Amino acid sequence: MELAVYNIAGKDTGKKVQLNDAIFAIEPNDHAIYLDVKQHLANKRQGTHSSKEKSQLSGSTRKLKKQKGTGTARAGSIKSPLMRGGARVFGPTPRDYSFKLNKKVKQLARKSALAYKVQNNQVIIVEDFNFEAPKTKEFIALKNNLKIYDKKALLVLSNQNKNIYLSARNLERTLVSTASDLTTYDIVNSTALLLSESSLGVLEQLFSTNNA
Questions:
Q1: Do residues 156 and 71 both lie within one domain?
Q2: ∠160-9-150 over CA atoms, to 5°?
Q3: Are residue 78 and residue 181 in the same domain, yes or no?
């Protein structure tokens, strides 16, 4: 599939790029996307939630009242979960939510997410560019020129660029990533995927390396 290359002024440069069918034209695998996004979100969880059970709660161990003859239910401890201020039954405890996922599944998920973006016409190829200094208004102008200001934009670069990153950092619904750091979650969460010309070669190299 061929796509036109645009510059930061939103003009067609007249150049065309051929997208690799092995990456952008595969049959998307929904389950692989689900697993990769699930792992991404699970790995971000702190898992520090905690509540005290009966054995961890400080308080008197005195029996509150005699066992029989009161006409009410038995009560043996003020730390009982039935008492106000008592312990919690089966409360949350600190845990690690992260889990492992096969590398080939993660690779399939990323390719599937990219394929979906191509199918939905949400991919824009941008000519390689740079900002002389971090300027948020220049990145706003870029989004306006490409008519994606109201969309969740993900710009993928071939390598890190401090000026571009700082220019987009304060903007809502805008994310800048490198091809090597690209995640399935970021792709799925965007509604406009901007790929720099040089990032296409990096993506092809990454996926070909993982297949080896």
A1: no
A2: 80
A3: no
Same domain, 90 and 111: no
Domain extent at residue 158? 2-45+100-211
- Domain co-membership, 41 together with 88: no
Same domain? 122 vs 196: yes
Q: Is the pTM of this model over 0.70?
A: yes
Structure-token match 């692989």, residue found: 32
Q: 179 with 194, same domain?
A: yes
Q: Are residue 78 and residue 28 in the same domain, yes or no?
A: no
pLDDT tens digit sequence for 142-198: 999 999 999 999 999 999 999 999 999 999 999 999 999 999 999 999 999 999 999
Q: Work out the number of other CB atoms within 10 angstroms of the CB of residue 201.
A: 14
* Assigned token pair, 188: 């799925």
The 10s digit of each residue's pLDDT in 73-120 is 988 899 999 898 899 999 999 999 999 999 999 999 999 999 999 999
8 A C-beta contact, residue 191 and residue 123: no
């790995």: which residue's tokens?
43
